[in-house]
Amino acid sequence: MLSIGDVADQSGVPASALRYYEKEGLLPPAERKGGQRRYSPDILFRIRVIKMAQQAGFQVNEILTLLEGFDSNVPPSERWREMAQKKRMELEEKQRELVLMQEVLDRGLRCTCLSWDECFLNVSLDGTCDRGGEKGADRHPVVFSRRYR
Amino acid sequence: MLSIGDVADQSGVPASALRYYEKEGLLPPAERKGGQRRYSPDILFRIRVIKMAQQAGFQVNEILTLLEGFDSNVPPSERWREMAQKKRMELEEKQRELVLMQEVLDRGLRCTCLSWDECFLNVSLDGTCDRGGEKGADRHPVVFSRRYR
DNA sequence: ATAAAACTTAAAGTTCACTTTAAGTCAAGG
DNA sequence: CCTTGACTTAAAGTGAACTTTAAGTTTTAT
């Protein structure tokens, strides 16, 4: 059995956060030994899922629904399914945004403009600066133009 | 030229947030007509990028660095490049978590267990319940087990 | 010309997800 | 047995990202 400090060390989640999760219902009330929490190592898997969901943009109350938002003892309740479906679509949208953002970063990293001043005339929807027309794709993204400094 | 209300409508970002962004430097100080903000439609592209970066998990001050965190007039400063490199790696990590999370949701949505009680004995690292052994992959993910209700 | 709708600011308030603090209790090692 | 370090709680504090409020000004439509 692990103390809260052990779990904190092994999961990378501070003890204060673990107590907070317990209070919010994200973690089950831990067994106690003389008032102190004792965890089975299983808890680490649950914490992993909580962290994963957080990275994916779930709020605490959403993770709660995800984990225990059903009362029936039949498989995934309608409520759960609805939430999961909705969330799945949100995740897909978020992935698209993530990829777009990576492309913006990559464009910036590959940029070969010699000065910002070269880069502030044309705004195109894909975010590149296409003034001269020669190697437009490798110019600064216009978002970074001097106009806004 | 667009009023702040127009921009709010067209971008989906509340006027109060737009004012906040201006105060924080995310948006350039807008031109004024009798004290009221007037925007060129170009601003919508910038707002799109801000939203994109937010979806991707950038904080406001990070977006600030992204947009104007360089002083030189040579292409992407070292500072910018460092930040972009770091962020790119974070984005990749986040994508992996997103995919994992989708898989957890999908497993839940595909689950065919007849009751939660069927699903609370085995914990495996991939998060599936594999008691009987027949169609293990389609059981409730163990995260959702009764143990924690 | 005037009334309604939309805008302005500064400052205070809100929500989320924790963290910190204070005062005290427990447990593990020597 | 005793000290030290880890733990306990409740409550207050924090930082991020806005939103709301209040009091006033400007624009727009009739």
From TrEMBL, chains A, B:
Residues 1-69 form the HTH merR-type domain. Keywords: Coiled coil, DNA-binding. One of its GO terms (molecular function) is DNA binding. Gene3D superfamilies: 1.10.1660.10. InterPro entries: DNA-bd_dom_put_sf, MerR-type_HTH_dom, MerR_fam. It comes from the Bacteria. Residues 77-104 form a coiled coil. This is MerR family transcriptional regulator. It comes from Cohnella pontilimi.
